[in-house]
Design a protein that fits this description.
Belongs to the TMEM218 family. This protein is mainly alpha-helical and 113 residues long. Helices cover 61% and strands 4% of the residues. Strand 1 and strand 2 form a beta hairpin.
């Protein structure tokens, strides 16, 4: 298997796909008309390619990897961590909206003569 610094070709392929997606999103963000929404299509295409490459690897397992013991609670743990991360982001957004962006009313000062 060809690797560069221990990183396989698939990771470089995914990095290239996402960099190209980012470039097209920036390029089409200033366009007029229906083509301006093409960035969403490129993101969806990149997500589909990422999921496909993630779940259908091409490489064969080596002798050591065939007998690897996997963590049976990995999916549950990652689901809980992802949920906590999403809730932390939602809480941060709500804090910004309700605390930082709270309107400041002007106070009328007394006239000085």
């Amino acid at each position: 298997m060809a690797t560069v610094a221990g990183i396989g070709i698939g990771l470089f392929l995914l990095a290239f796909i996402w960099a190209l997606c980012f470039f097209f999103c920036l390029a089409f963000s200033r366009a007029q008309g229906a083509i301006a929404n093409a960035g969403i299509g490129f993101v969806l295409l990149a997500v589909i390619l990422t999921v496909t490459l993630w779940f259908f690897p091409r490489g064969e397992l080596s002798a050591e990897e065939q007998y690897t013991v996997f963590d049976s609670m990995y999916i549950a743990r990652m689901t809980i961590i992802s949920f906590c991360g999403v809730m932390m982001v939602v809480g941060g957004v709500l804090m910004v909206v309700f605390h930082v962006f709270e309107p400041q009313k002007a106070v009328v000062l007394k006239r000085m003569r």
